[in-house]
Design goal:
By secondary structure, the protein is α+β, with helices and mostly antiparallel strands. It has one domain (2-131): Nuclear Transport Factor 2, Chain: A (Roll), CATH 3.10.450. The protein is 32% helix and 42% strand. It has 4 helices and 6 strands. The protein has helices at 2-14, 17-22, 41-54, 122-131; strands spanning 24-31, 37-39, 55-66, 72-83, 97-109, 112-120. Strands 2-1-6-5-4-3 form a 6-stranded mixed beta sheet, with helices on both faces.
Length: 136
């Protein structure tokens, strides 16, 4: 199952939404940081399209953890990004770079991701894009 997680993150870093969707169950539960839960591949694809419009991100320094029976996983990584277009309710975008730690948690079933929950420090992200200086 860690192959599924690795394929998912490789597709993310390549900007390959279809590749990410191929790793998901049809009824994926997407728990967004500070947002509502989205259910289903269509909602996930809409979220990804929005993110691609507003952000360019690459995940580095990734560590993936998997439980013994392969039904749950977690990943810790660094988000290296550029804020491309102003997102609703957030500071104005003007190409600011940011770098912050984040993590994702997964439920896995039948070689697919059934749930993904992503966490990062939103106030740290806001501070970085307001100041234009990323924190290492």
């Amino acid at each position: 199952m860690s192959d599924t997680i690795q394929r998912y993150f490789a597709a993310f870093n390549a900007g390959d939404i279809d590749g990410m969707l191929a790793c998901l169950s049809d009824d994926i539960a997407h728990h967004v940081n500070e947002g509502k839960i989205r259910v289903g591949k269509e909602k996930f694809a809409e979220f990804c399209a929005h993110m691609d419009r507003c952000y360019k991100e690459e995940l580095t320094d990734m560590i993936i953890f998997l439980n013994a029976d392969g039904t749950r996983a977690a990943a810790e990584y660094i988000v290296n990004g550029t804020y491309l277009a102003t997102d609703d309710g957030l500071p104005t975008a003007n190409g600011q770079n940011y770098r912050l730690p984040a993590g994702s948690f997964f439920d896995l079933a039948d070689d697919k991701i059934a749930r993904v929950t992503t966490y990062y420090n939103l106030s740290e992200w806001i501070a970085q894009v307001k100041s234009g200086v990323s924190q290492d």
